## 1
Amino acid sequence: MIAYTVTSVLCALSPTVETLILARFVQGLAGAVGIVIAQAAGRDVYSGGKLIRYYGRLTVLGGLAAIIGPVIGGQLAAVTDWRGVFLFLAAVGVAILVASLVIFRETLPQARRLTGGLSHTLNDFRRLLADRMFVGAVLITGFTYSAIFAYLSGATYILQGMYGLSPQGYSFAFGLNSLGFVIFGFISGRLAEHWSERGTLAVGLAMALAGALGLLATALLHLPLIAIILSLFTMVSGVAVTSPPATSLALKEYPDIAGTASSLLGLARFSFGGLAAPLVGIGGANDPVPFGIVAAAAAAAAALCLGLVRQRRTVSGAGGPG
């Protein structure tokens, strides 16, 4: 959080665009710590149904951030320029730092901590990647978030540029999808806790795939606005349903290396998403077909990976796969 706060200030004070890009890159590296630590800390203190419920709440908070963030950004734009926005982010960083020091307590006791350098980390990676359940959960997370990144990078020019939505109309559509993410993320945590993680995951993947195929059909057949709105809502809500059970399946058997497992999960989310996002615009601003293809392909690949999430290989202790 110290690095995030400092680089936010550097962004605000950047004299050139090159300085801004570099500071922004480091800011992103520092900010990435948050979700990894949040997932790992949850595994430190929860298990079973409580762990799934916790990941459901993390999903809800992510959706709320997507709703509240653009609103705050819009209000800031009315009273300051882009430099002021980065100063605001620096202030947020200070607030989170203070909260971390005053409220947040260490979740991993000294006796459970691991020591070791690069070789130890590589052994942990090998242990995780030898587990079919873990790999399946990571791939599902990566592919579903590819669909989300496709949505984030392509929805603006499709809804506003092609369908003619006003900024207010687009904000409403974006907020509706974020609301779906919040509601279905909450429902998923509860459903997986009382029913089945894999069953909940299957429902979410079916929703995401149905929504993505709807987007592709809308693009190919030039369907009306309501079709793309409903398809986006279904896809985004489906991804929210997959997030808590996929995270729980990936981390619940690895309390001793929860941080390493969480980092791989986060890597899949953003690396897959980063690769998918540029493909959306490959046909230009007036061609929605690549958006539909990327979303449908990502959702289909995630659904195929459900076959990996069946029976976890026996893992003996912390030394490696059984």
## 2
Amino acid sequence: MVSFGGLCRHGSIHKPATNLDVTPLYTQYIFVWGAVAVPILAAYLIRTFPGLVSRVAPLIATLFTPVVVITLVAFFISLAVTDNNLFLDRESLLVFNVMLLGVMVLIIFSVAEASKGVRQRFGEIVLFVLSFVTLIVNLLALSAIIYRLDQFGLTPNRLAVLGSNMLIFGHLTLIMLQLYRVCFQRKPLIVVEQTIAGYLPVYGVWALLVVIGWPLFFNQF
């Protein structure tokens, strides 16, 4: 009889089932074509089955908002106990900003969905907590960006990221204040939705400024 320990010592358990390496196949064909097909498939499903989206959207907002709050708190704890330094690690700061944008989109999406149904105090409080935690995340990202500007100098990318984060910070502050009024002053949730919609043109102006003004300002033409 062959023992489990003997297998481990001889390395038999670590042998692959086949000698076929499928990594290049997945990387060059399945992953690439799959990534291109996902938005096309999503657009097809939305056009063909609009009722599916209306049923799934509230469920996503309800399930993911509390999970994201817990994830952000855990992320802060991990930053405190690990050697990860957002002020020096450019890749970590990039991931941090992507996460910030994702949470911002989730807040907007959740508010839009919550305003369509019956008011739920627990959901409103979760949104308020999420906006508050995300505001702290944004402050940390802004601090890291300003530090990098001071240490490594001004570049178009750093200035664009700084401006975008400042716009998001202002938007989040307004959203958090309105959610506070909704939770503790019993204001209707529509005030948050109006705040979100009223700020969207600011993003449009900033995008035009970056696309048109940046090349002129930094002599790229």
## 3
Amino acid sequence: MQSPYKNYIKQEVEGATKGKLVLLLYDGAIKFMRIAVKAIDEKNIQDSHNNIMKAQNIIYELMSTLNMDAGDISKNLLRLYDFMVWQLIEANREKSKDKVESVIKLMSNLREAWREVVQKEEGAVKPETQETETRSINFAG
């Protein structure tokens, strides 16, 4: 039997728009990086490594779902994600809390921008359109 929390997350993901899925990915990456910072403070090498790797994997997922035909914004996001991954690789190697925190700050700023876009999109969608329109996202690339 699934816990109420897992049911909630499952429903949240299954009913999410592409924009909301990106927000969920950002939230996950930020959460794992915060856990990694705490683990670095506690000198827990394995937990810091595991959580940095989880955050990196989420960023790789974000990179793989970029629509490169969308122009400069996609190219700029790709470069930014690539920088974040590099910072996390270095942070993991050096056990640098500062580098993880710098990526948290970048990711948090991106998340805020995405949140505003999602809110604007939701406000622009007419109620009758919401019921009939379905969108899918291909995480496979």
